[in-house]
Hints:
The complex is a heterodimer.
Chain A: E1 2-10, E2 16-25, E3 30-34, H1 41-48, E4 56-61, E5 64-65, H2 74-78, E6 81-85, H3 96-105, H4 111-124, H5 140-153, E7 158-162, H6 170-185, E8 189-194, H7 197-202, E9 206-211, E10 214-220
Parallel strand pairs in A: 3-8, 3-9, 6-7, 7-8
Antiparallel strand pairs in A: 1-2, 1-4, 4-5, 9-10
Chain B: H1 3-19, H2 21-58, E1 60-65, H3 71-82, E2 87-93, H4 95-104, E3 124-129, H5 135-143, E4 148-152, H6 155-197, H7 199-208, H8 212-251, H9 263-291
Antiparallel strand pairs in B: 1-3, 1-4, 2-3
Helix pairs in contact in B: 1-8, 2-6, 2-8, 6-9, 8-9
Amino acid sequence: MIWMKDVEKRYANGARAVNGISLEIEDGEFVFLVGPSGSGKSTIIKMLTGEIAPTTGRININGYNMNNITSRQIPFMRRTIGVIFQDFRLLEKKNVYENMVFAMRAVGAPPAEVRRRIPYVLELVGLENKTRRLPGELSGGEQQRVAIARALVNNPETIIADEPTGNLDPERSFEIMSLLERINDLGTTMLVVTHEKDLVNRFSKRVIALEKGRVVSDRRGSYYMN
Amino acid sequence: MKKHDLRYFFHEGISNMFSHGFMSFAAVGITIACLLIMGTFSLVAVNANANLQSLQRQSVVLAFIDETYTEAQEQDLQKKIEGIDNVRDVTFVSRESALTTYVEQYGEDEELFRELEPEIFRDRFSIHLKDLEDMQETADAIRALPGIAKVRADEDLSQGFLTVSRIATIVCVALIAVLLAVSLFIMSNTIKLTTFDRKDEIAIMKMVGATDGFIRWPFVYEGLLLGLFSSLIAFFLQWVLYAAIAAGINASDTLQLLDLLAFTELWPVVLAAFVVVGLLVGIAGSLMAIRKFLRV
Lengths: 226, 296
């Protein structure tokens, strides 16, 4: 569950990126976070992943109070979130399977768990036949599937996807979004940041629209701000 | 820490070392160079100190005995000198023995001094001291004993030895400290470059929830292995270098006077020092290098 109350973020240069946002995302929800550049989407993601702290207001994610979280607790909070980026951020020298192993071993997963979990996740994202391929040998859509598999492999409660289809053509974008929807159906909370109006309108989900650091709309259905 | 984590850290450390072969090679090369320079300076210092100590041991105080003293009195006097604090050993040298030593010094011209009578020399005690620093006080104590006609102690020479020894030690310690700092700095920067190359890996590890400790360990193992390899290679190179220098000194007419310690006497200390310094530089360098990248 994600819970934000009167959150503000001002940077050292005085810029106010987020201006009194309050929102609540229940466990198992699928939410699009939309808005133009500079509306505060990236700042919200950074606050949710513990990269930056809010200037005022309160944030709670998956039971972690981000206002008084210690630096030692942050890794454990991050284990409850899977993050997907527009540019995939895969390790180019490691193949698909090794990218998965790397993510699991990084949180101390035992080898038996690694061997059991990875085939299941790769099958879920449709890459079970490409485990030995390097990221450079895969298409953009496939690379994003690897990134989704990596975000999913440690079984997080929430997935935060930051423009996950930004580098893909419309058809691949739809496939990726459908995959995220399928993962959400399995119970993982999904927060997807996107610019793509048509894509958002094809899925009937909750859409939170931001502008100048404020929530200007929060509705269910195929809504996208003009 | 779990057993499978240990295996993972070790595997990652080795794999990182080989996957960034050039940087590893650079780190090992630089550490070897620094260890060799440090080792060579240290060995020069050790040998200089050993030669100075040998010279110190040869440095004696001569106490000439009153000519009226009988043999029994001389023995009594020897006991009194032996009782002085700073005296290591006392040897009685008769005037005949003193003459023989004197004549022998002239080698080919020995014949010219054959006619000398022993009576022109005095019976004396040849005295070795424990600590040359207190030579003046000890010579004064011997001089004050009844039956001692004269004392010859070369205080200036002994002070010269001590000064040279002290300066050599200070210079060597300072050089070793500077070289150690330089090695640490270079190793840290070299590993920082490899770490920079891997900042994406670190960012991903942080993103999926790896603790700082978990991220740090493979780098520590890598630094440890690089340090260990460097120290072992440097040790064998140092051995070869030392042997070559020793051969050169032995072949030289003037330098032959220097008495070099055998490497077989020194190798355990050299190996231990190289391994300790290599590991220290490797591990500390890794920790310093990775610190910046963990602040995410």
